[in-house]
C-alpha cells in the first residue's frame, strides 16, 4: 500500500515562508506524477502545484511566482516551497501521487495569520 506522509505545515505570518515535504514509500516513486492540493474551510480541494515523472511542473495561477514544487527521486520526496504567504493560502495541504491509481496523504495544516 502506497504511503504518503506530509510534514512542514504550521503557523506563519503573512509574507513568511514554509517548505512542505511529502515522503513516499511502498511505491516506485520516480514513475509517479506528484502534486500538492489544498482545501480551505468550506471550500473544495484545489490543485496547487504538480510535477510529472519527467519533471514538468504546473501551478495554480495564484501560486505562480510564489510557490515552487520539486522532487528528489533519490529520497522519494516531493517538496513545496511556499514564499510570500498570504492569509488566503491558509488550508490543509495534501500530497497526491498518481500512476494508474491516485493516492493521498493525510494532510498538513498551513495557517497564515498575524
3D architecture notes:
The chain is mostly beta strands. About 0% of the residues lie in helices and about 55% in strands. The chain is built from no helices and eleven strands. Strands 2, 4, 5, 6, 9, 10 and 11 form a seven-stranded mixed β-sheet that branches. A four-stranded antiparallel β-sheet has the order 1-3-8-7, with no helix packed on it. The radius of gyration is 13 Å and the shape is globular. About 30% of the residues are buried. The model has no long low-confidence stretch (mean pLDDT about 95).
The number of helical segments is 0
Helix fraction bin:
under 10%
Low-confidence segments, given as residue ranges, are: none
Number of strands: 11
Average pLDDT reading: 97
Which sequence of SSEs, written as H and E, runs from N to C? EEEEEEEEEEE
The geometry reads as globular
Radius of gyration: 13 Å
* Beta-strand fraction estimate: over 45%
Q: Could you give a short account of the major beta sheet?
A: 7 strands, mixed
Cα(first) to Cα(last) distance is 40 Å
Structural class: mainly beta
Amino acid at each position: 500500500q502506497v504511503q504518503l506522509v506530509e510534514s512542514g505545515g504550521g503557523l506563519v505570518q503573512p509574507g513568511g515562508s514554509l517548505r512542505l515535504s511529502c515522503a513516499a514509500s511502498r511505491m516506485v516513486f520516480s514513475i509517479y506524477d506528484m502534486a500538492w492540493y489544498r482545501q480551505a474551510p468550506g471550500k473544495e480541494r484545489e490543485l496547487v502545484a504538480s510535477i510529472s515523472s519527467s519533471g514538468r511542473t504546473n501551478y495554480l495561477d495564484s501560486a505562480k511566482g510564489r510557490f515552487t514544487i520539486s522532487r528528489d527521486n533519490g529520497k522519494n520526496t516531493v517538496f513545496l516551497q511556499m514564499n510570500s504567504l498570504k492569509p488566503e493560502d491558509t488550508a490543509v495541504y495534501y500530497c497526491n501521487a498518481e500512476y494508474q491509481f491516485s493516492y493521498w496523504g493525510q494532510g498538513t495544516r498551513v495557517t497564515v495569520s498575524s
